[in-house]
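Handout, section B. The chain below has 704 residues.
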Amino acid sequence: MFKSIIFKFIIPYLIGLVIYLEGINFYTSATLVALFLIYLYKRQNINYFLLFLILGLLIGYTSFNFYNDRFLKLKDSKSFKGIVLKLSIDKRNCIIKGRDCKLYLYFDKSAEINVGDEIVVYGEIIKDIDMKKVYSRNLNAYVKSNKYKVIGKKSGFIIYIYKIHDKLKREMYKIDKISGPFISGLVTGDIDGIDSEIKSLLNDLNISHIVVVSGAHLGILALFVMIVFAFNFKLRYIFLLLFTTCYVILANFNPSAVRAYIMLLLTVFAQTLKKYPNKINILFTATFMMIAYNAFLIYDLGFILSISSTFGIILLSPIISTKLSNKLSVPISAFLFTLPIVLYINGRFSLISIPINMLIAGLVSILTITSLISVLLYILFNYNPLLLPILFCGRLLVNLLKIIQKFNIEFFVGNFNLILVIIYYVFILTLFNIIRTNRISKYAISIVLFILVFLNFNFKHELTINFIDVAQGDCIFIETPNKKTILIDTGAKFEGYNMAEKRVVPYIKRRGYNKIDVFIITHFHNDHAGGIEYILKNLNVKNKYAFMPNRDDFLDLKNRDKIIIDNVELNVITNEKAMNMESNEKCIVLSCKYKEFNFLLTADADLNLMTNISGEYEILKMPHHGSKYSFNEKVLEKLKTQTCIFTVGRNNFGHPAKEVIDLLEKNNIKYYRTDLDGNIQVTSNGKKYKIITQKMKRMIGYGN
């Protein structure tokens, strides 16, 4: 039955979605489809496969056009109207629901608004972000607001639930700024206000799921209703429907909560008909329904982890429990099925995550039950002391996790790609005999999988230069042939958003590193050095350099200094006559070389410095994000280059300048842009080089 569902319905459905949304090239798509057609032809399932493949393509097409059309209508708008549904603790961010759109708003300072207010916002759509992740949250756009006004107040059942949610998280935050947001996340899945240190703690220990509303939360609530209303069958199901619906609204329709809610409804409905459906059927029916509503949910990490962990528990727990106790089988099953996703996203996992999950599972369950009861009593009686016991227990649990973190051991893998994810799942399904094969076939599959794994790991000793997309800023991460690391700049830090925290450190760890051998700051402007403190706190940094540093822990670099690490040369070029400490004159340019491969990293150098540099470079990082005051025809004549890279994002300076783009195109020089291409990766063996780009943002509405 399991194989039938997977091969007939789920795989072709997902292949159709991915082919449409990701734009996988024709040959890859044809290969995937051909392999499954060959497999299914012998089993006479070809009609089902084709039907659900087409259905996946259609749903991908429908979702893409639905969200893209709305974005195109919104992108040039300057004013937006809607009702406030969710408001951050500091009131600098909120979600509003308009007539035909749902928007996430950013304010420059705390807004004087409340949940339920109807507001008009003046601002502009933020365009230099990955819109797929925006759409996966059932949002239509992010908006940077410069002005707003409240034009009314709305009421109603759903608004009332949202107001309860907002009041609850604010009261808990007011009582305890550490455990308040933690308990709020435990109860409602809303992690607003959780300190970045606590988020890193949960992520490092692979236990972020405890602040995500899941089936366990709804199961506890359902059990409570069943016990209280055991005397009356009809009342039991009426209140079960009422309580769980309110709870999903309270959780802001979190995808994990919605998935559990749909599964619960399908189970209850089947039981009223005296049917006992297969759990896997219910799981995939719920998944099918949610993805049919919004195909971009396949980009929501919480949703993916929720589905995979539930699937693993349903599938593997009965098998593992024959060898081990039930207490061990559930966390092990969830771990085995979420491990490849964690490796793909983070590039690492905690070696003690299974014992930690076993240790805290009971504590979290008890704390969740008591928290739900305390919250319910607080809602009924509006009495703050009712929250004190659970907040105290929450603080104790956080302190316990901080102690455990000191003994954490992380295993770094790096570059765990989608092919390896697929290979892993095939291996697990074969190992546990879920895909039934004879002994010879099992050995054959194992050999093929081993070969594929071997081919997917890069054993070449190559130089890799990563231009990380940090919007309007610079951050370059270099991996030497023997795995030494160089980090040049960090990107910016804004109020509530640190590029080092959100993009740089996760990217470096995903590549399989936790240390930086050489850390260079080209100059101390925010868009280049805003994330220094976060980098130093979260990575093991050995050597720190800067030109005329304004802090004691950085060594001073001078003109013509040279740094050599693993045969990679970094030659320092500076303007020694720079007088204005705040201008771009005070900036390092790095002329870099690996064997016969040369590349020039120019930071924000101006024309005074650029006109004094000459040479042949395969790769040129464009100075000052493509400013016309840093690059012209004279500079190009002195710098013979093949490929240019712009590190740029949304800005008010006109970067990259039209004159600069025209100059490159006139001379047939190829160029890449982080605002359009995402992360840009250059690899070289010392002679030849190749470039790989993320190329996701071009697909959505505003790309080329």
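Note. Confidence is low (pLDDT under 50) at residues 696-704. Compare this with the example in section A.
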